[in-house]
Amino acid sequence: MVLATPAVGVREPQRGAALVASETTDPTPPRIPAWTAPLLERLAGTVPRPTLVAVAMSGGVDSSVAAALLATAGLPVVGVTMRLWAEEEFERGEGGCCSLDAVEDARRVCARLGIPHYVINLREQFERAVVGHFLEEYRVGRTPNPCVRCNETVKFADLYLRMSRVGASHLATGHYAQLEPGGPVAAVLRRARDPRKDQSYTLYRTPPEVLARCLFPLGTLEKTRVRELAAALGLGVAAKPDSQELCFVGGGDHRDLLARELTGSFSEGPVVDRDGMLVGRHRGLPFYTVGQRHGLGLESRRPDAEPLYVYQVDRSCNTLRVGPWTSLLRTGCRISRVVALVPPSGRGWHRALAQLRAHAKPTPVTWRLIPGDRAEIHFATPQAAVSPGQSLVLYDGDQVVAGGEIEVESGEEFD
């Protein structure tokens, strides 16, 4: 069974081979900055020998530097790029970080580092587990987090499993997060040192036994250092912009995708305020999310009127409910599909910091487990835009302890 194919020559085999030859014989050897010495020493002692580390490479600067650090530390490394798109989308570059251009960037980096590079086809898994889930969540009035879903079901599940079957003992990525071995769990997941780039929020659903086999070489670095290192190593992606959009949207508006893929599963309906008064019409519930203010198309109101926000997407009667900013505030919520990286002691109340968005400021909470893989959360101060479907991740300091998907009960508005 073929699990991966060499990436060299994805488009033009002869031209690809020439590029490899020219890049691997670059007469200018890379100069490693002196400040990397402690990091390289730590990475060299991270995993037992012999071992093989597969690095998930998107063609961006982060995964490229992650591969470079591991290779420079003397670990046996192979680069692996996931192909997530059908042929025509792949050629047009609609996959963003996983397009043909991204594959070529990853291949060139691997050639520069002198390590093998492979492309692995996970298109069916991605379409089913990530894109399909994204569409279904919006269809039923929830706001999904596709990055969390992709990490859970594709990158740290399908990709990890396939690479382990071909001899890789560890999987490395360019995520900004820190891992520590030991303690009551197989691995301790912590925030990255650079709080502006921290991605531990998106990793909370990774099983502890998989985390124990993961490496995040960038966890102690700031982004400026990562770009500096990429330039010093001559990787060619040092100035490449970070991807900001959903990879399967291809730089467009996700509402265009919803309109195309969910045709026939939504209809126009009323927009009502908190008094039940009709204030407009919506085009279909999948196009709106809790906390949304713009693009509501509401009827004209007096100039001094308060702005209106979506505070509930009511699928039971195909109604969008809007109100002033205070209508977004919640004193608490429940989360489902709870995973606990650090199982709590007992079923009483526990203190933690909760993060409701990937880059939101953490807020103090108390929480407890309840039956059905669920948890109850009480906020120390009311929180706005607690959106069903989004992840709520719990921290003890900088350590991830648990998380789940938000379920807001009706009637929990704070006045």
Summarize the helices and strands and which ones pair or pack:
Blueprint: E1 5-6, H1 13-24, H2 37-44, E2 53-56, H3 61-72, E3 77-83, H4 87-92, H5 100-113, E4 117-121, H6 123-139, H7 146-165, E5 170-172, E6 177-181, E7 187-191, H8 208-211, E8 214-215, H9 223-232, H10 254-261, E9 269-272, E10 278-282, E11 309-314, E12 319-323, E13 330-340, E14 350-355, E15 363-370, E16 374-383, E17 391-396, E18 399-407
Parallel strand pairs: 2-3, 2-5, 3-4, 5-8, 9-12
Antiparallel strand pairs: 1-4, 6-7, 9-10, 11-12, 13-16, 13-18, 14-15, 14-17, 15-16, 17-18
Helix pairs in contact: 1-5, 3-5, 3-9, 6-7
Description of the molecule:
- The longest helix has 20 residues, at 146-165.
- The termini are far apart.
- This protein is of the alpha/beta class and 415 residues long.
- Mean pLDDT is 85; it is low at 1-27 and 410-415.
- It has three domains: 5-232, 3-Layer(aba) Sandwich (Rossmann fold); 266-326, SH3 type barrels; 329-407, Elongation Factor Tu (Ef-tu), domain 3, CATH 2.40.30.10.
- A hairpin with a 7-residue loop joins strand 14 (350-355) and strand 15.
- 27% of the residues lie in helices and 25% in strands.
